[in-house]
Write a structure and sequence with these properties.
The chain folds into three domains: 112 residues, Beta Polymerase, domain 2 (2-Layer Sandwich); 97 residues, Hydrophobic Seed Protein, CATH 1.10.110.30; 125 residues, no CATH class. It is built from 18 helices and eleven strands. A hairpin with a 5-residue loop joins β3 and β4. α10 packs across α15. The protein is elongated.
Length: 371
């Protein structure tokens, strides 16, 4: 039984990138042997085990055969006679098809180190075309390493275009598509993710609305403004808002889009709030008290103060991209502090109740919004 570190951990070590997750492949072992060594079996499709102390995943070396549509349409074969080279041959890119032994020796049967040096994203074998999810994965890797100068091999681009021309992308679940997009949003150059999907003719199938980002100077400006601390939710909210600027009912369209995409609720809500807020905040200087209070109430900022920070962050990014102007968000934040100082209990003590209480409360709020 031999154990090798494989995949992304080996790649990122060679790139001097931080390694967060380690995956291991075990050659020459049976499931029973793994159990005898106290590994905990998990997974139903093929034998994967959890290390008894590190909690890391160890998979038996395996081969696969296409048996249906989509990324889950495969039959796997794992046995002690499957070689390391055979296991690595089923991986997507050469830079992900390397292994490292416990003595540090790199096993690289498909030229991954050469492609790292040449900064090329290249498929391992023609079997690449059997898994439509690889269109999204490769686009995500392009977004991760574009700033280092990595480009997509022309022959790999061709295979991705072939996948897009088939019906395979339609068999990907919305949840899995969103998962890849969410991960891409956190990469250094998220727009490259959409650009590669555009180049491979997959964007209109997977994210048709985001075709509006291709070639957009505003989107490029947004990406330059993203920092490592900019959350994926803020990135999504600002980028998606660009795609819904000219709709007659942008908030409804945006919510429908998020529903189709199966985004988590906090992504959807933040995107809708930012789309509602951006123009109002840009016009804050010339807004009257009613308009200011209306925005605050529409965003429910008095009851949900935790919303304000990500909304303002995304709107600030958008304002710089759209109008080349920084928002004076301090005025809104100061106003919210003042509005929170209104104590309804004090008004009740003064004899206000029912509709009269509501009217007096709004009068005080509007009075503060006039400053």
């Amino acid at each position: 039984m031999k154990i090798y570190l494989v995949g992304g951990a080996v790649r990122d070590k060679l790139l001097n990138y931080p390694v967060y997750d380690k995956d291991w492949v075990v050659v020459g072992a049976t499931p029973q042997e793994m159990i005898e060594h106290k590994y905990k079996p998990v997974g139903s499709d093929f034998p994967v085990f959890i290390h008894p102390t590190s909690g890391e995943e160890y998979a038996l070396a395996r081969t696969e055969r296409k048996s249906g549509k989509g990324y889950s349409g495969f039959q796997y074969h794992a046995s002690p006679d499957v070689t390391l080279e055979e296991d690595l041959s089923r991986r997507d890119l050469t830079i992900n098809a390397m292994a490292q032994s416990d003595d540090g020796q790199i096993f690289d049967p498909y030229g991954g180190q050469k492609d790292l040096t040449s900064k090329i994203l290249r498929h391992v074998s023609p079997a690449f075309s059997e898994d439509p999810l690889r269109v999204l994965r490769v686009a995500r890797f392009a977004a991760r390493y574009a700033h280092l100068g990595f480009t997509l091999a022309s022959e790999t681009l061709g295979l991705m275009q072939d996948i897009s021309a088939s019906d395979e992308l339609e068999h990907l679940t919305r949840e899995r598509v969103w998962q890849e997009m969410e991960r891409a949003l956190g990469e250094t150059s998220p727009l490259i993710f959409f650009q590669v999907l555009h180049d491979t003719h997959a964007l209109n199938t997977l994210f048709p609305r985001f075709a509006l980002l291709i070639g957009s100077q505003e989107a490029a400006s947004l990406q330059k403004s993203f920092s490592k601390s900019t959350s994926k939710a803020v990135r999504f909210a600002s980028l998606s808002s660009l795609c819904f600027m000219n709709e007659t009912d942008p908030e409804s369209e945006l919510r429908n889009f998020c529903q189709q995409l199966k985004t988590p609720n906090h992504y959807r809500d933040l995107a809708a709030h930012v789309r509602k807020a951006i123009i109002a905040l840009h016009q804050w200087k010339v807004s009257n008290a009613e308009q200011k209070l209306s925005l605050i109430q529409a965003l429910d900022l008095l009851r949900r103060p935790e919303r304000i920070s990500p909304i303002l962050e995304a709107c600030q990014l958008l304002s710089l991209a759209l109008y080349q102007e920084k928002l004076e968000t301090e005025k809104l934040e100061a106003l919210l502090t003042k509005l929170k100082g209104i104590n309804p209990q004090e008004l009740i003590k003064k004899g206000y109740k029912g509709a009269a209480l509501g009217s007096e409360l709004k009068r005080l709020q509007l009075e503060m919004c006039q400053d």
